[in-house]
Amino acid sequence: MILRRGGAGEMVSHPVFDRLAPEMKSFCFAEEDGESFAPEGMGTVLFTKRKLADALPFFKSVKTKNPLDRLAYHLFNAQGFQREYDGSAIFDPSLFVGALFRKSLGNITVPHMPADDGPATYCASEGEMCRCSGRVYFGRKFDNDQALNGQVPKSPADDGPATICANEGEMCECQGKAYYGRKLPVNGKEPLNLAQTVTSVYRAKMVRGQIRCSPGGFGGDPLVGVSKHCLCQPHK
To answer: 127: closest CA among 104, 156, 103, 100?
Structure first.
């Protein structure tokens, strides 16, 4: 019997299996052999180096073997995979994930890509009005902290200064636009300002009074598992 037990939580499952089922044969898919379901650097590729052209050199730099040829893959759903790759993005050949899914599924009919219908131009940041006679798409603004499609959308911070109005779970007093997003840098302790907060996924709402600095107040959690705060950008 072969037990593929990583999904149960290695620090818990390994000692339990060793104690309760010594007669069972176990097999580990080792990263040093290029067989692990979580290739070295996979988390960075999924959420930072999303482009195939960025991912493959990165895998090579960390000496990852066969990044596109594993038996199975751990895609870190709990860390936001489904949010990052919803819709047609999962088959986008310019992304590592898209290339992986296309290769895994073989000769399939790939869903229609909206970009095949013609060019689109940037019309608004989150919370702003978009003037359009046609189809409007609402989605990711930055990739690797760079504007998508070569266009440079205006940063919300360009509309004026903002001050921190609440920590997560508190009430934010605001007469203007409130922003809900990342509170701290990855390796720092000083709260981020608005320009820094909006380089990650965030949510924003126009407020006249109070709003709860929480997923409930803003209609969803932009960064699950990450410490967040709210900032208020007053009306001019």
So the answer is: 156
Q: How far is CA 15 from CA 1, 21, 22, 189, in A?
A: 17, 10, 10, 37
Task: Please say whether the beta carbons of 66 and 40 come within 8 A.
Answer: no
- Weakest mean pLDDT among 82-91, 162-171, 212-221: 82-91
Q: Can you tell me which residue has the tokens 């870190």?
A: 76
Residue with tokens 């798409």: 137
The pTM score is: 0.45
- Taking all residues of the chain, what is their mean pLDDT, rounded to a whole number? 81
Q: Are 203 and 180 within 8 A, CB to CB?
A: yes
Cβ pair 160, 195 in contact under 8 A: no
Q: Rounded to an integer, what distance in angstroms lies between the CA atom of residue 56 and that of residue 68?
A: 9
Please, which pLDDT band fits residue 151 given cuts at 50, 70 and 90? low
Q: Is the pLDDT of residue 7 over 50?
A: no
Categorize the per-residue pLDDT at 4 as very low, low, confident or very high, splitting at 50, 70 and 90. Answer: very low
Collapsing DSSP to helix, strand or coil, 29 comes out as coil
Taking the CA atoms of residue 169, residue 170, residue 175 and residue 181 in that order, the dihedral angle to the nearest 10 degrees is -40
- 163 pairs with which residues across the strands? 232
Three-class DSSP category at 104: helix
